[in-house]
């Protein structure tokens, strides 16, 4: 409660600052040319690496997480793909403030950006210049140095000089109508330049249709204050702020507490537009592979008896993937559970990258909440781009040397400190990237665009391939669901569940009813039947008309399960 009150005070202070800024706007626009004459320097010693981002080579600070950036660029790209994405008109110009220009270099080569212009005011100008050169010096990318990539033309202009040139480029000619066709992305970081005095005159051109403020992995009170000030400034120009996406909840109403344990590293940022976008579609997949046709019906019975019976009881729609089309095969000899990855990848890769996807194991899971409730929990957790279940056992053996490192990141009060791959949730584009990299590895490939760390290639286990990148740099921006708002894994858990009034099971460590309970390992034989029977009323029979999706085709519980799920 104290945190929310403090955040409210920050937001009110930001609004007051924005109102003052509006009064001072003519002064700022005139003074911006004279402020801060110091040339931008300081990134000459930044260690960097070249990675592939959306198919393009870009220079980024060494070890930089990229999952949030991948999602944000997809959300911005959707505005350009939509012919009326900028207030009913086509978007034509992207401005990036801070960072290294990731969205610019990740988007500019795509066909629908042939007529787009990109202005990059990078925090790390040297890295932006390297990416510019690797991209072939595209003419539609404008860097600060008067058309000469910095630092080739000398030290380059100061940040405010560069901002003044940007505003001049965006300001309509006298008597001309202002087209609302500009999208702005701002990368916030601890100890970096504040972009308020750049964003304000850009907004004053009245051409801005959307703004994205990107949060770093570590949030501070100062960054929250800056984000609130920037959001309040944008509100003066008619932009509404949403948390975690253009489709997220209002920023002023909900905010992820950075001290909380659920799904850290938290929200990707604040997304601002004239109106909130429609909510994302939730695709809740369960992978199912039948290698022996003689086992098909017993496995379907297991699926129906546990997962689908409880899903129907909870009003949660499940998409069974792989039952009819198979697993696709893997050329290596992976752990038996790795069959899940190509099945889910085939589905997720075909979805819009801003959709919401979820995966849960088929034969040892039960569902306790509705699809709508799970989506609300996703917003309450800060809309993480990728979050996974946790468990009390560090697995597989090949990552044992790094178990302590992973465990130290967990809140001390929770025994479930390690990644569990039986359940994960996130934005489709980010999850698809991890799946593509792991499936390529399991097929004995090592593509140059993979983000999978070399140290992780010792594993052929889906859980190892999820937990290991989390330890080594966390390039996919994976968060762990320690509170079990989404998933609860039973294996080795000494703390029992307790039943609450609606027959659902509560996790006592966090007083939360987990969305999905996963009876992994020996917990399946010990607990799953009792948990399933305990949450369903005596004589329960699922509604035969309850919708189920099987390999992309809509069907019903009755058509798949017959008269009712029978334990296989």
Keywords:
18% strand; 16 helices; 23 strands; 568 residues; Rossmann fold; disordered N terminus; 9-stranded mixed sheet; alpha/beta; 7-stranded mixed sheet; Spore Coat Polysaccharide Biosynthesis Protein SpsA, Chain A
Describe the model.
The protein is an alpha/beta fold and 568 residues long. It folds into two domains: 2-273, Rossmann fold (3-Layer(aba) Sandwich), CATH 3.40.50; 282-561, Alpha-Beta Complex (Spore Coat Polysaccharide Biosynthesis Protein SpsA, Chain A), CATH 3.90.550. The chain has helices at residues 2-23, 25-31, 67-81, 102-107, 125-134, 159-170, 196-204, 221-236, 296-314, 340-348, 371-380, 403-408, 428-442, 462-471, 523-535, 557-561, and strands at residues 48-53, 56-61, 93-97, 117-121, 141-142, 182-187, 208-214, 240-243, 262-264, 269-273, 282-287, 319-321, 356-360, 365-367, 386-391, 418-427, 479-481, 487-489, 497-499, 505-507, 516-518, 547-550, 553-556. Strand 22 (547-550) and strand 23 (553-556) form a beta hairpin. It is globular, with a radius of gyration of 25 Å. Residues 1-11, 17-41, 146-153 and 258-263 have low confidence and may be disordered.
